[in-house]
Structures are given as C-alpha cells and as structure tokens.
Design goal:
The chain is of the alpha+beta class and 912 residues long. It contains 30 helices and 18 strands.
Length: 912
C-alpha cells in the first residue's frame, strides 16, 4: 500500500468524543526514534483548546480547516476455498508509503517537536510551526517468483554483494540507517563518488526541506510494509520494514538488510521491528529496476512469518543467504498454487471446513476418508519423532516443559474423575483403573493417531454417563461390569460406522458460535465440579462435627499399628487422625474441622492464583524472555507441588481432604459378556448410540479446534482415522472395565499452545498474538503416557499427598484458561462495560450493537438449555444432552436467520 503523507504538528491529540465513528489518524511525533507516536484526528476537535487552535489556524491560513481522508485502492479477497474444505484465510499484501511535509510558521500556544524528536510545550521552550501531512495508500502486488525474472535477478545481485548486518545493537532508526549507509559506503564494489551520506540520510525523512530546522515532522518518506487482511480487519506486520530512497547522486542500486538484536518500538505500525531493508536506487531506471520494484522483491519474501523466524535463528551471513535462497525456491513452487495465501505458506490447509454442506456423494465410497487420512499422514510419520530432536531448530527444552505440564494437567483430572467414579460405581471403577486406562489409551493414541497433539482424557460428561449406567444397573438388578462393557462395545460399533461413512464431514456445519457454546459449557462443568467439591467440604467440616468419624479413623490407625508422628506428618486424612482427637469430644473437634474447610478454600484459590499468574508471566516485562517462557509452561506443576507441600507440611496439625484409594484386586479382568439377556443388550445399544453421539461431537470438535488455521499446523489432518482409532481403543477399555476416553478440551488446545512459537504485535493499543509455528511431535504425548503409567507405582503415596482442593484449583485454572479468546464470553463482558471502552473488534465495527446483544442472548439461551440437560439431577435427562448439541445445527441455520440478518450472523461467526 502506498502512503504519501504530510501532517500538521498541532494535530497531535486524540480528538473526538469516545464512541464516534473513527476518523482518519496520522502520526505526528517522532515515531522513528523509538517512541510511541501520538495520533490526532484532523476532524472532530472536541475540547476547547482544540477549537481555539482550529480558529487560530483559520486566521493564519485564511480558510476553513479541511478534512483529511484517503482511499484504499485494491480489493481484499476472502480466502479461496480449497477442494477439501473452507478456510478462513488471511490475505497478505504489501503497503508502500511515502510522505512529504510543508510548514507554515505559527506563534500560537501549541506543542512542538524538539530536535531529538520529542514534542515540547511552546510556552516553556520555543514556538513551533504548523505542517500539513498528505497521505495516500496503495496495495502492491506480491512478486511472482515463477513468472517475474527480475525477482531472481534482484536476489542474485544482492547475494553476490551481500550487505547484511547481523545483531545490530543500535536502538534508534537514525542510528540503524546511518550504520547501514556506512556499511554500503565501506564496500569497495559499491563506491559512489558523488554520494553524500548526510544527503542520503536527509532524503530518507520528510524533514529534509523543512524551513524551520529542528521543528520538522521526522517521518520516513518512502516505505513498504506488510499487511494481513482478514474478515476481522487489517493488521500490520510490524516486525519488519522496507525503506526506499531514490537519489540522483546514485549510480546503481544498493540493498542492505539489518537484523536488530532486540525488537524496537519505532511508532505506530512499527512497534516491534527486527528487520530493516534499505533500498537505494537512481531515478532514471527501467520500470522493473526501480527502488519500489526491488523493495517489492524482498518484501514479498519477508511477508512469510515462518521465514522471518528462520532468519532470526541464523548465526552467520552464509546461513542468512542460504535461508533467502530456500525461501525463493519455496515462493517459486507456491506460484503454481495461487489459491494458497502467502500468510499460510508454511501452514496446512484446514481440511475440515467445507464451503458448502456435505453432499450425499461425499459419504461414499465407504472408507474413503480413512484412506485419505492415512495417505496424508503416513509420509510424515517419521518426522513426528525427529522434529526438534535431530537437525536444526532443536526444541528439547520445550518438549520437557510441555511433557511436565501435560502430565500434571492430565494426572490431576484423572485422579479427580477416578475418585468420582469410585464413589458412583461403589469401587468397581476406581482411581487405579482410571490411571491405568488413561495411560494405555493415550499411549496407543500417541503412537498411531493422525493428530498426536490431541489429548485424550476421561471427562466430566463420561463420568456422568458412568453414573447413569450405575443407576440403571441398580434399578434393574444388572451386573454393572457386563452392562458397562456392552454399552462401550455398542458405542465403538457406531463410531466405526461414523468413520467408515465419513460422517465427520457433518461437523463442518458447526459454526464458530456453536463451538463456543460447547466450549463454554465444558468450562462451566469444570467450575461446577470445583464448587461442588468445596461445598461438600464445608458441609462436612465447617457445619458438621464428624467427631465419630475421627474416632473411627483413629481406631483404625491403632489397629493397623501406624506410628502417630509418622501418620501425622503424612497427613493421610482417610486413614489417620491426629492423636489429640482420640481423647476429645465433639466440642474440641469442631474448631479443627472448620480450619480444614477454610484452609481448603485458601488452597484451592491459591492454586488458581499461582498457576494463572505464572501462565500470564510470559506477557509481563519481568525476567528474561526464556525464563518467562519456562515458568509459563511449568505453571501448573509449580502450583500443584507448591500448594501440596504447603498443605501437607505447612499445616500438619490441620486435617486435609485427600482422594480415596483402594487397590483393585483384578485390574485387567474381562467382563462376563454372556451374563446379560437380549433385552438388556438392546438397552445397552440405545445407551451406546447416545454415548457415540457424545464421542463423535467431542472428538471432532476438539480436533477441529486444534487444527484451526491460526495454529499453522503443517502435517495435515486425520479426522476419520482418529475416530476409528478412538473406537478401537475404547473397545479394549470397555472389555476390561476401564473408563472411556476421548479428546479433551481445553487440554488439547493448551498442548498445541505449549508447543507453539508465538509472535506478539500491537494494534491500536491492544496486544495480539500470532502463532508462527508449532512443533508437531508425538514425543510429548508419549512421555506423558509413560509418566501416567509410572504413576501407578506412586499410588497411594506420594500422589495422595495432593489434597482435593488442589484438584479443584486445577479445574478452575482449566476453566479460566479455556475462556481466553472465547468471543461469547467477551460479548458477555460488553454488557458490563461502558460503550466507550468497547474493544475495536471486527464485529463491533461491522454489526449494530443491538444485533450483537441479540446474538449473545440467543447463545446464552442455547447454553442454558445445554446446561439444563447436561447438569440435570435427573439421570435420564443427562443421557440426551448430546442430542441437544446436534440440535444446535438447525437452530443456527433455521432459527437465528429469522431473528438476525444473515450478513450480521456471518460477521459474528467469522473464523478465528
């Protein structure tokens, strides 16, 4: 995009009332000396001082102030749809900028700029001058490396006489550019006898011809920047900038690239610059050899975020040049596929989304989807074990921290749901069986799945289903293990049919709003599980005495022959009690029991606070970036270990609630499948069908979120094969009476995020994060599965040292992190905010406020309906809540368009 600009210094404040339609903004202060530039509206000066300055300007100029505006030329294309599915693509392009400025003298009381680039008050220093900044913008076409020969010649000429500055320590743009010009001057092959460095330096900025030296607007005259256009708006790529200069004193073209040691803040749209490309050229050149054309070549290469990360990891000029050559080859190949967006050059195309609802022909022939998944994933299967271990870009440290995080994130919910299953099934499915099933199932999935980044767990909905099955068995006097096995087998049978007939394509009908409703429902279940557990603790220990229980526990300890000091130190609440409780009555036991309840609450909240604080540490300015990343990745293990030690050793005299553990006599006993009647087996088929709907939705939905385009996964998807693998794994778990598992939310997304390299940028004062790439490996899932198996040896101790409040704190942490980025939750926050503080999101700019609130209200109604069935105290109502999830598809396509216009629905349902 081409920008020509000239601006008045006095228009330096953000004018206009909050909430008005935004007006064009221009940068006024010195944004190229490492300082944030103030912005000012050329129209809409609302405060009294602005009106006075407007009147003074009218007196000086003899005319009314005119509004400033610009027109964006060029068409922003929505991402094309690949043959396999619909993609919410980002279309990247280039923006070329040029500025010019002229000044009119003024003695009015206004802010002026000092020589070093800061604005100073005229009352305290010296009077300044007004200026006019004329701005225009134009999109540049990306360089086609297959068809345009000049692109290769530009790069070959640069490689032959490479001027590359690695690890530049200068912080201001002036110093960086002067160092680059000096590097060009020192090159004996590029001597320019008539060239003056000071003259070139002055021509790079707009203040070269300013009549009032030191009072000029110090802006770059001609630049190219990358922009990324999506359905949510336009974002600048702020990590690089290409600076152009045309001078008659030059005899030939020159290119210099400088890589800065640290990102520099050089003003609006350039807040984190790491690369500076300087292009110099004489004016009389062929149209294909101008400074703009040369700059377009290098700007096209730097438009790829993955390529920029490669350049950051180079250590020598030879490695830098080698990376340029590889990028040229990649761009040449990409020219054969014009539908692929530049911003996703190194990313996979989401094969899950379809531009249209699937047709009948898409479901046949049988097994077609599985074959395509295997053909897509099998060639890169060895890389799943070697990426990050062998070759460049090693990530062993990240793998270790991610494995530890994932281990604790999976272990604690497994213990919690195992304890819940133990209570619901009267010990048939206990903690030991839950941990064993988790280890075996996740190990098989990590080895053979098409998307190993997806994490398998037994979840709260599955615990509800197990409770329903137990209730049916009690009502009709059925053998629980056998009925459970038949239900699981029918579930696997239906899942196999779904995989063979490619029914995962139906999930393309789920819009973003529906996904967010289900995701928020899962978050609510985590919160309710934590709240229910804490309420039980308060009911038992704060409002009740339970002295009889303490005495019975103490008698049990004496019978077992434990040493009192030892069991007091271990604080084993279900097997022991402090000695003093054996000789006291209920009146003495009550204060201690209340201490247990209060301490449990503090432990739960402390676990949440510490884990979330460490998780957010990577966004803070404290410590070294590497240390921040490690602490953020290890937030969960650190918080769990910290508060487990605090509760066990810091408060030994206070009884803490631990999970119950009773070793299974027959851990891998096959159920007696022949002991049920045909009627009972038919009933199990009905339950198995409803359970398969839950598996189908959860597995595909979580996998789709993990494979979303913004995660930039490159090895492809395997929805149909993974669904078949889930059916096979749960067949074995059902036969041995182990709890079922499927894809877990938000663990899978947190796993992807832990393995991702993230780049931050600032837009309109808001910090946004962009995933550069993700280490797609099986090693972290394998390591977690192995550690889960080892955990069987840690039962009951030391794992029983982890109190239940820590588990509840983990649930709250998972709920809190899962709502990050959930637009439904963000729109609910709007109801509590002042309208002037609304964030500049795309749907706020494109959708009327009333329609936004209507849409949010309808989503809340669907969420309440889902919660009413999924959390109902009636067991049989819980069985049908997967059907409520399916019912959201016709609600979205048939009901909502009758209330809200389709164009507004599409805007609020835009892809991530």
């Amino acid at each position: 995009m081409r920008t020509n600009g000239s601006a008045s210094q006095e228009a330096r404040k953000v004018g206009g009332a909050e909430g008005r339609r935004p007006l064009p903004q221009v940068t006024l202060c010195d944004p190229w000396r490492g300082r944030l530039g103030a912005t000012a509206r050329v129209m809409g000066l609302d405060n009294a001082r602005d009106r006075r300055e407007s009147e003074n300007r009218r007196d000086v100029l003899g005319e009314e102030p005119q509004p400033c505006s610009w027109t964006l030329h060029g068409r922003l294309e929505r991402g094309r749809l690949s043959s396999a599915g619909k993609v919410a693509r980002q279309v990247s392009s280039l923006q070329i900028s040029a500025t010019s400025v002229s000044f009119l003298p003024s003695r009015e009381n206004s802010s002026v700029m000092s020589q070093n680039g800061y604005f100073e008050d005229a009352e305290n220093e010296s009077p300044g001058g007004y200026g006019l900044l004329h701005t225009s913008r134009k999109y540049l076409k990306l360089k086609n490396f297959e068809e345009e020969i000049r692109a290769h010649r530009d790069l070959d000429g640069f490689l032959a006489r490479a001027r590359i500055i690695l690890n530049e320590t200068a912080t201001s743009l002036d110093d960086v550019l002067r160092a680059m010009l000096c590097r060009l001057a020192q090159d004996p092959y590029n001597s320019e006898p008539d060239c003056n460095l000071d003259l070139l330096m002055a021509m790079l900025f707009t203040d070269s011809g300013a009549p009032m030296e030191g009072k000029a607007v110090h802006l770059l005259s001609d630049t190219i920047q990358g922009v990324t256009a999506t359905v949510t708006g336009v974002q600048y790529q702020q990590s690089w900038i290409c600076i152009l200069c045309t001078s008659k004193a030059l005899l030939r073209r020159h290119v210099c690239i400088s890589r800065l040691v640290r990102p520099q803040n050089w003003g609006q749209n350039s807040c984190e610059v790491r690369f500076v490309i300087l292009v110099l050229a004489p004016p009389k050149m062929k149209s294909t050899k101008t400074a703009t054309e040369v700059g377009r070549t290098f700007a096209t290469m730097l438009l790829d975020i993955t390529f920029r990360q490669k350049l950051l990891k180079t250590h020598t000029e030879e490695e830098f040049k080698e990376a340029l050559v590889q990028q040229r080859q990649l761009l040449t190949v990409m020219s054969h596929c014009p539908s692929i967006s530049m911003d996703y050059s190194m990313s996979s195309i989401c094969l899950f989304r379809h531009p249209q609802p699937p047709q009948q022909k898409d479901f046949l022939p049988m097994g077609k989807g599985i074959q395509e998944d295997i053909a897509r994933r099998f060639p890169v299967y060895p890389l799943d074990f070697t990426d990050g271990i062998i070759g460049k870009n090693k990530a062993v440290g990240k793998y270790i921290t991610t494995t530890l995080f994932l281990y604790f994130a999976c272990l604690l919910p497994t213990i919690a749901f195992g304890s819940l299953n133990d209570e619901n099934t009267k010990g048939v499915i206990d903690v030991q069986k839950t941990v064993a099933g988790q280890s075996i199932g996740s190990l098989l999935y990590a080895l053979f799945s098409g998307q190993p980044l997806v994490v398998l767990l037994t979840t709260a909905p599955l615990a509800l289903y197990i409770n329903v099955i137990r209730g049916i068995c009690d009502d009709y006097n059925l053998n629980f293990s056998t009925f459970y096995a038949w239900t699981g087998l029918w579930n696997s049978f239906f899942l196999t049919l779904y995989a063979l007939f490619n029914l995962s394509l139906v999930m393309s009908l789920f819009k973003r709003s529906t996904e967010e409703i289900i995701a928020l429902f899962i978050s609510i279940t985590f919160v309710l599980d934590a709240v229910k557990g804490m309420v039980k603790i308060f009911q038992k220990y704060y409002y009740g005495h339970d002295a009889r229980l303490f005495k019975e526990e103490s008698s049990l300890v004496n019978l077992l022959g434990f040493n009192s000091s030892l069991h007091t130190a271990l604080n084993t609440s279900f097997l022991t009690s402090p000695p003093e409780l054996t000789t006291t009555g209920s009146q003495d036991a009550e204060p201690l029991a209340r201490d247990t309840a209060v301490l449990s609450l503090l432990i739960m909240l402390g676990t949440l606070w510490l884990s979330y604080t460490l998780y957010q540490l990577k966004k803070s300015p404290y410590l070294h970036p590497y240390m921040r990343e490690i602490l953020s990745d290890c937030a969960l293990p650190i918080s769990v270990l910290t508060f487990s030690l605090i509760s066990s050793y810091g408060f030994q005299e206070i009884k803490m609630v631990k999970f119950r553990y009773s070793p299974s006599e027959n851990l891998f006993e096959i159920a007696e499948m022949h002991s049920l009647s045909l009627v009972a087996i038919s009933s199990a088929m009905g339950l198995g069908f409803l359970l398969s709907m839950l598996f189908f939705i959860e597995q595909n939905l979580v996998a789709a979120l993990a494979n979303s385009p913004q995660n930039r996964l490159v090895k492809g998807t395997a929805y149909h094969w993974d669904l078949l693998l889930i059916a096979i794994i749960n067949t074995g778990l059902s036969l041995f009476g182990l709890p079922w598992i499927h894809a877990a939310y938000p663990h899978s997304l947190l796993h992807v995020r832990a393995l991702a390299l993230v780049e931050e940028h600032v837009e309109n004062g808001h910090i946004y994060e962009t995933i550069v790439n993700v280490k797609e490996t099986r090693l972290t899932s394998l390591g977690t599965s192995i550690l889960m198996g080892v955990s069987l040896l840690l039962l009951p101790f030391p794992l029983q040292w982890i109190p239940k409040p820590v588990l509840y704190g983990l649930f709250l942490y998972l709920a809190l992190t899962s709502i990050d980025g959930n637009q439904l939750f963000q729109r609910l926050e709007l109801l509590l905010k002042d309208q002037t503080s609304y964030p500049p999101t795309h749907y706020i700019r494109r959708v009327p406020q009333r329609k936004i609130h209507y849409f949010t209200g309808l989503q809340v109604l669907q969420l309440l309906l889902l919660c009413a069935f999924g959390m109902s105290p009636l067991l049989y109502m819980k069985m049908v809540f997967p059907l409520i999830m399916i019912a959201m598809i016709p609600i979205r396509y048939k009901v909502l368009p009758q209330i809200i216009e389709a164009k507004y629905l599409d805007a609020m349902d835009a892809e991530h």
